[in-house]
Write a structure and sequence with these properties.
The structure holds two protein chains of two kinds. Chain A is α+β, with helices and mostly antiparallel strands. Helix content of chain A is 64%, strand content 11%. In chain A, the strands form two sheets. In chain A, strands 2, 3, 4, 5, 6 and 7 form a six-stranded antiparallel beta sheet that branches. A four-stranded antiparallel beta sheet of chain A has the order 1-10-9-8. Chain B is mostly helical. Chain B contains three helices and no strands. The model of chain B has no long low-confidence stretch (mean pLDDT 82). Classes of the chains: A alpha+beta, B mainly alpha. Chains A and B meet through α1, α2, α15, α16 and α20 of A and α1, α2 and α3 of B.
Chain lengths: 668, 108
Amino acid sequence: MTTLGGVALYVVFALSVYAVGASVVAGRRRDRKLARSAANAVLAAFAGALVAVAALEYALVTHDFSIAVVAEHTSRQLPFQYLLTALWASQPGSLLLWLTVLSGASALVMVQNRRRNRELMPWVTAVLGGVMIFFSTMAAFVSSPFQKLAGAVPANGFGLDPSLQNPYMAAHPPTLYLGYVSMAVPFAFAMASLVTGRSDARWLVSVRRWTLVSWTALGVGMLLGAHWAYVEIGWGGYWAWDPVESAALMPWLAATAFLHSVMVQEKKGMLKVWNMVLVSAAFSLSLFGTFLTRSGVVTSVHSFVQSAVGPFLLGFLALVIAFATGMILWRLSSLRADHKLESVISREATFLFNNLLFLALLFAVLWGVVFPILSEWVRGVRSTVSTPYYDFFLVIFGLPLLFLTGVGPLIAWRKASASSLLRTFRWPAMSAAAASVLLWLAGLGSSPAGLTALSLCVFVTVTIGLEFVRGTAARRALSGDPWPRAFVQLVSRNRRRYGGYVVHLAIVLLVVGITASSAYATVSERHLALGQSMRIDGYTVTNEGPVQTKEQNSITDRVRLAVSRGGTADGELDPGIRLFTDTNDQRQSNEVDIRTSWTTGTDLYAILQGIDQNGRGVTVKLLVNPAVSLIWLAGIVFLFGALVTVWPDPREARMLARRYAGALTREA
Amino acid sequence: MSTALAALAAAVLTIAAVVFVAWPFVSAEREPAEPELSETDRRRLAAAERRDESYQALRDLEQDFRTGKVTADDHRLERDRLRAEAGAALRELDHLDSLSQQNGSEED
């Protein structure tokens, strides 16, 4: 199977080279057959990548320890599901996954556009093929997943990293990769539009939809990763500003800015250069994130050891930035704005301000990521940028962004008058003011930033609620439909707008969850002898003795903790320390236990810090994380809102088809 | 899987890829070269885009007015401006159509 997998990667490389060459010639000569042949090469490359994945999976599940990645990342005792997910536990395996998702997304673009965007598609194929050449070169020649193990074949493998033995590992990396990789598609469309000089609405629709897909996948991937960190890493938090977490956040921020500013381009013909820059930045930042993870330049729970891939990735990133910059400069004159900003109190101005804030936050995060690397290069000493740095910028840029999330929907396009502003903002502003007083009276004034964030969340929620109510009422007045039907009609006819509002609601839930669980959390750590109790935030937790469980490849020492609240039993917690018997160095992992209150969304989170020699006394760390469940609920609402937004709008497709047919049928 | 079988599978994969890539050249499906967009076509597309943008902006304006974001005075002024923009785009489309017809009759 290694032969087949290796050959499949060479075939993918050759097909990618052909796709680029053929599509460039097809684009220049307007040769449809050659363009279709190039598109077929992309489809075949995807099939080749799938064959390589199948070959590696076969090697993993059959314990072929002659292959380095199988020997180094699995064992005979590893449960079957983790044998499958071990594909992306290694550097070469995750590069293969990158290549497979990239070729899959590219193949989908070829199928979607078989009869559309004919002028653009050869150039889209060329750009996507160029990215595929790079990643197939990495997978086939630099860091092959089918590399044989040096020396004798061992009887058993070295085992999988304990932190990767979690069900979230099945979904988190592929989702995040889909987000990273599919950013190549809007980039390819943007570059194709620059090559052809076509900057009309049709390419913008393709770019917008694919950016939404990438942005959704990145958002969901980050939340899956946060939940994995929360339940697996065992420090009680979900986001540690790890450089690799930040690396995923940066393209998401750039894409979020783009998804707002693209509306200004669609409605007003403004910000064309800015949007090109944002699309290019989002893809470049995706590559930068890949560089951070693959190169080993940063210390992270996610990153792989120092490898040969890093310099290649850095070189490719520089090439992409130079190419995008050159293309934008070349077509600068054709990207002039059709209109000018007429008033700073308008929706387009709000989007412009939110873009500036997103970019400011992005640069703050970027500086936090690169500063340790630069300090090591320049001074030879690695300085670290810790949580307070990020928290500071999150507050000074995040709070105004949250404010604009509420302001944007209520301001009219072009220009808003003072009287209409007063009328539309009356209820949201009064609600936010009332909420801040109530929250302060409830004792939440200990964190001014937290109090402000929660009050702004009320402001945003009321604006969104008003938008739905006023919109439905207007629809009802026009059609005479009953309320539920008018509501459904309103949303289905304006999916982008109202899907976007649902995403804004998800952001509100996220902010409430993050604010409450970080600004108002309670922590306590104590030694508990057998039968001894400790109290935290109204909970009483009692050590009821040790328990040992055996799993397929591990032994877990747990402590049973009885939980009560107000004198009433409230279940139990069983945190433990897990010893992996199949790893060479007998690695351990924390097995935290969490008790969630479904009424308040609050978690009682238990970490077993240590067990006494006699096995009966334990040191336990407990955290009460208020409203943390809202973060995970935000993920579900975010996904729902994103799906409403990204769902194809047949009316938009019909309108574009009519417009193009009307313009082009007369040319013959 | 034996090495020979794997090599055979690899050969089949390679041949299948070559056939699939070459298929557009040997298939009977007719694929004429795409015509170059003329300057008039591009202008017509741009005018149609401006017309549709104006229509969309009018729809947005009506929605903003009905939900209380725009005053009656602002609504009237903006509606007249957008109607004028849509009218200008429609006139340009008519002009381009008549140009195309003239060129067509001259060629005849």
